[in-house]
Automatic annotation (TrEMBL):
The keyword Oxidoreductase applies. It comes from the Bacteria. The keyword Oxidoreductase applies. Keywords: Oxidoreductase. One of its GO terms (molecular function) is oxidoreductase activity, acting on the CH-OH group of donors, NAD or NADP as acceptor. This is SDR family oxidoreductase. InterPro entries: KR_dom (IPR057326), NAD(P)-bd_dom_sf (IPR036291), SDR_fam (IPR002347). Belongs to the short-chain dehydrogenases/reductases (SDR) family.
Amino acid sequence: MTDLTDKVAIVTGASRGIGRAIALLLAMQGAKVVCVARTAEELEEVALKTAGLAITADVSDEADAQHIVAETIRNFGRIDILICNAGVGSFSLLEHFTLEEWDQMFAVNVRGTFLLCKAVLPYLKAQHDGHIVGIASDVSKRTFQHGAAYGASKYAQDAVLSSLRKEVRSFGIKVTTIYPGLVDTYFNDSKPGNPDTEKTHLKPADIAQAVRYVLEAPAHVVVDELMIHPLTQEY
């Protein structure tokens, strides 16, 4: 199995939910974690727990994406892992969506993934090593009512990662996409621990363990895609 000790990992959306769980678990495995989010107060708390680096940034902004990578290199000298987890979502009938809501989802979910991947690739290619993990969604593979905008952004993110996987494999770089089902987080203004969702949803720690699984796979093993959803969720 691949040892994560001293691996340098950038985790976006690290201030809460899935990103927080991933950052904490990677730190427990000995990784040096760069925690990225837009909310400084919550981010600092996670960075303290991981003994890592906190960078307040908007992943959909090109200058911020380049800053995240530059600061990681300045502090640690390399990048081994990029976790593209930052994401936003809102749900409504298509006719009720505003252009602002549509653009925000594509900015964070798609452009954010594109910009961070683009920024780290020169370093990963120079190393002939590295692992990019995208936290997509099971709606990257299906559609549902009220999910036109969010689903479209996740289909697009999936396409970015899938295409990138084919472009970088010859450099020894792995790209894995994880498709979580329903997760008990703050996503879409919900609050974790709600009795109505606690027994029917995945926990952020479940997704973090899935990330650990793909990162710790032996060097000769490639996990391209991993679907994870609760037993209570039907398809």
